[in-house]
Amino acid sequence: MNLPSNFSGATVTHSRGLSTNPYVAMTFDDGPHPQNTPRLLDMLRARNIKATFYVIGSNVDRHPQIVRRIVAEGHEIGNHTYTHRKLTSLGDSEVRREMSRTEDAIVRAAGVKPRTMRPPYGALLQRQREMIFSEFRYPTIMWSVDPLDWKRPGPSIVKSRILSGANNGAIILAHDLHAPTVDAMPGTFDGLLSRGFKFVTVSQLLAQKGQA
Q: The whole model's pTM is what?
């Protein structure tokens, strides 16, 4: 699917895309993980699905080869800070450092710059969002479907929560840090595909809005 991924504009935060088309964006936070992420990439490749990975910079430095594979297989990389600290408790200089260290790690590993960010725990003040957007050009990406997979409710519950919550333009949150989440993905992907959803990256989803 050759969708545009260029977006411009001044919207600082997004939690979903347009609801006019059956597109969803699967997002995976907190990786890359040495076992779970490659397994997830195999599942995505088998179905020709593109996803967006919000990576932690320290994990990027530990596993640069996985980040290279993510990019080589057509997925998008987003900035999820370097140390996964709660940004609302940090000063501006520390927030900038979390962003820039992660961007540098991604560029070193894979030669691409992230275009969006997601704050750990979804915690980011409006003032901080505006600063990050102004200085890094990252819109803050939240989500519209949260299966609470970090509580490890089991693969079948993760799958059912995503399938029941998904609708046109959904941004779906998941974590490739957790093996049970990855276990849930084949059934989740196949269930969404069978309902006619098409998978796009976050940037592709935002490009349909014509803004970011």
A: 0.95
